Amino acid sequence: MSTSIISDVMRAFPDTAVPDCENYYTNVIALCNDIYRGDPPWAYVKKAGLYAKGERRLNMLSCAKVLCDCMAALTFSSQADIYCASKEQQDYVNEVLRENNFWESMPGFFSKAYALGGGALKVFVSGGKTCIDYVDADCFIPTGSGAGGINEGVFRSVWRKNGVNYTLLEKHSMEKGFVTADRVLFRSNNGFSGERVSVDTLFDGLEEHSEYKSAAEPMFGYFKPAAANNLAEGSLLGLGCFANCTDTLKAIDIAFDSFSREFILGRKRIIVPSSCIRTVVDPESGNVSRYFDADDEVYQALKCDEEKDLKIIDNTAELRVTQHTEAINALLNILCFQTGLSAGTLSFSGSSGVRTAAEIKSMETRTDITMQQNRCLAAELIEKTVRAVIRCGIMTGALRDEDIVVRISFSDKQTIDRSEIIDRNIRLVEAGLRSRLSAVMAVLDCTEEEAVKELERIRRENREDNLTL
């Protein structure tokens, strides 16, 4: 966006106390966003060569995107288990999450949140239905906090209708113990917020001021990476996972660019005697070009004094693949160290072979600790979002007004290899420390009833095999 969210918020809500973080949004969040999108400040370099002019784009590894996707996968590699107080609430939450493509959208949400240092999930009602809005860090500014974390903030979103762009600023506040929402709509012009227009210009029936007296908690949840923000001390904002690693990312791209150009500069070259060079004249321009005809197979009479003058020498440079790979892997290990991951979590070589998840987990203790911290914050985000979904259901009459009790848990299946689960259960059954029924339930991830049916089928098949023999 062309304008900073700070200036838009101050224009829309001049009486709101906005944190003094203009430089942080401009110099840190915007920079991280450019790097994440593959357009870092070092993307272009001057062309080299005697007659080269202008700039060329580096061949980049785009490691920032890979890093964020990796951390998002480690945080949210499988669906979280959601437990509600009643079956009615449970079914309603599952239906709302399904309609909003929640589980499909969360990996991308977490990837962007790791890049920009945070993100928010805003829950609202539209057309009688509960909806979830996925808000990036550069479109949200916290304006207040309480014992439960950030509970007030301003959201910015861009809409387009009939060929016209609109910018909506929505401020959520906690007043007198309940949630209030104030909205301001601008008609945008070339990326800048233009004149202010009525909110119902774009949203029918939506008021500029709303009060949700039945909502005693915020209608949004905010996630930020567990790492402390050393670039904006005292701020409520989070820090992107690679915000302190831009020098390393630049070095990785330079090394990868050198590795890519190695195949261009290392193409086959031969040295031929000058007597083997022919000339041809362009009939239109009259320019004379010199070339060596590699397809010429006829005898030629060449004048030379020594036999060595007729030798063709291969002067091809040796490709430094191993050196480049080792250099890139060394830089990747430095990046892992800077971002709280174990060495080897990111690797440029596949020569290490296939490892089980149990082996990886035993080696990546640092990665496991880092991601457990972030997984706790992710669980808190999902819990706040689910509670807001249930409150919207109560406000719309879809749910009864009763106590809201929500529990979120992440399964450890995402960090344990399936073969390790099978081997462990076999050993426990053979040692008499676990029943076959429990082992089948753990291995097949099924209910007790399904496990009983599976054991019965196994017994029946074994009897048939014995009769056949």
Features:
6-stranded antiparallel sheet; 3 domains; 39% helix; 469 residues; 12 helices; alpha+beta; 21% strand
Task: Provide the fold topology.
Blueprint: H1 5-12, H2 22-36, E1 44-46, E2 55-57, H3 63-75, E3 81-84, H4 87-99, H5 102-116, E4 119-126, E5 129-136, E6 140-146, E7 149-161, E8 164-175, E9 178-189, E10 192-197, E11 209-212, E12 220-223, H6 246-265, E13 270-271, E14 278-281, E15 288-291, E16 313-314, H7 321-338, H8 357-363, H9 365-395, E17 406-409, H10 418-430, H11 436-444, H12 448-468
Antiparallel strand pairs: 1-2, 3-17, 4-5, 4-12, 6-7, 7-8, 8-9, 9-10, 9-11, 13-16, 14-15
Give a structural overview:
The chain is of the alpha+beta class. It folds into three domains: 283 residues, no CATH class; 46 residues, no CATH class; 51 residues, no CATH class. It contains twelve helices and 17 strands. Strands 6, 7, 8, 9, 10 and 11 form a six-stranded antiparallel sheet that branches. Strand 8 and strand 9 form a beta hairpin. Helix 4 crosses helix 9.
Quick synopsis:
With 469 residues, the protein is α+β, with helices and mostly antiparallel strands. It has twelve helices and 17 strands. 39% of the residues lie in helices and 21% in strands.
